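Lecture notes, unit on binding sites. The following record was shown on slide 14. It pairs a sequence with adenosine monophosphate.
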Amino acid sequence: MTESFDVIVVGAGPGGYVAAIRCAQLGLNTVCIDGQANADGQASLGGTCLNVGCIPSKALLDSSEQFHKVNHQFAAHGIQAENVRMDVAKMQSRKEKIVKGLTGGIAQLFKANRITSIQGHARVMSGNTVQVLNDEGQLVQAFAARDIILAPGSVPIELSSIPYDYEHIVDSTGALEFDHVPGRLGIIGAGVIGLELGSVWNRLGSEVVILEALDEFLAVADHQVAREAKRQFVKQGLDIRLGAMVNQVDSTATGLKMTYTRKDQPQSLEVDKIIVAVGRKPATEGLLSADSGVSTDAMGFIEVDDQCRTSVPHIWAVGDAVRGPMLAHKSSEEGVAVAERIAGGVGHIDFNCVPWVIYTSPEIAWVGQTEKELKARGVAVKTGQFPFAATGRAKAMEEPHGFVKMVADRQTDQLLGVHMVGPHVSELMGECVLAMEYQASSEDLARTIHAHPTLSEAVHEAALSVDKRAVHKVN
Ligand code: FAD
Ligand code: AMP
């Protein structure tokens, strides 16, 4: 029998679970179907983000950063620490506890919001119906609804020439689960995930080499930010080789030989483990029946308009499986906007105001456009910059690295982009995103009082610097 709901949500990652909660808040009778299970086979809501993405990676980044600080930064404070050792099993169990707590929290929120939660594999059929299949592919249940929200997320891309063996050659999920610190670690891809996971194991003692096919480091970021970040990463011991296209991996008596091409020359490197971090692809395989009517592109992304509508009326799609950056908060905001549209509201989302963060040390964060992108579009801009080394707080914290850069329209002074590298810039980003949402000018930020001594003074001074009136540097 087919059970009817107002809304069916497929996927309980940050796109799906947030959409389901917002639907329920708006009075819509909602069912959410998700296939993710924990090691015991039980449902584990929260998608990639909570289970194998944002949260476990940040847990390990934090543990490894504490370890690194004890070994490398405490001495400057006069603290002597000897024989410091990392208990990897303890670090991993802390991470697992955090994941369990948060995924369990989503289950409680579903219950409190009276959302029906179903574990299984969803398949979208014609006529706005969704079947639920078990692991053997057998039909277990079927649901119908006027509106369907698809939020199936994404999975790691596998290189056909370097298949995962899930022991020595792993994806990001495997890299979050190492039970010991690898001696020599090779990483393919210097994107967000490669840099974050490379930082974790480098801080814990691995010799890390990151091989990146492109010649430019972090091409998506502001070029000054990328240059400063790379300088700091190299100082920390990350060996980043650009223009290095990995073609092949072979087992040797002593490890794994990675063969790559650099400047047209074949080169090789021996490592103990390899993390393949070459990007993610939409998890749409098996999601859509042949007659569902929902269109996908050649890469498998679900095609949507600016409002997240698919090719079928009343079927919507959000998150990693649609165009735009693969970021948890982008998925969630699309989920909220779609729920509000289904309930008859407007559903606001400004794709120009999606913040990006890379949780390395120093952190990297930005919102809006880069100076280079704006100039390429012919927009006349003015910029302001302020180094953390000139703020008392960063010095007191012994973290005087990086800077804040602001880009504003030369005529109107409207803020068009903010780019940062430095301590806790993920947290400093919030006020800049808000300023961009409110279409603030750089002067609005320059005339806002910032507490002293805080890191946020670098944001204030960068805004002042747009009009060459920063106080604590020579303009
Ligand atoms: P997902 O979180 O992937 O959730 C989709 C869910 O749908 C999954 O549970 C999946 O099992 C389920 N599903 C798929 N198909 C079906 C089906 N047919 N039937 C039933 N269920 C199905 N982003 C950030 O913003 N900040 C970070 O710090 C960050 N760190 C990351 C670190 C790592 C290591 C990784 C891998 C990713 C990270 N991301 C981060 C990206 C972030 O995890 C994703 O952008 C986000 O999870 C996408 O949310 P989503 O809801 O679209 O999909
Ligand atoms: P992202 O898409 O941000 O996760 O980054 C993935 C990175 O992996 C990109 O910068 C790609 O250029 C890089 N990449 C993809 N394939 C290879 C390869 N075979 N060798 C080295 N780098 C690669």
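Take-home: Residues 10-16, 33-36, 47-49, 53-54, 57, 121-122, 151-154, 172, 193, 283, 287, 319-320, 326-329, 331, 359 surround flavin-adenine dinucleotide (ligand 1) (CB under 6 Å).
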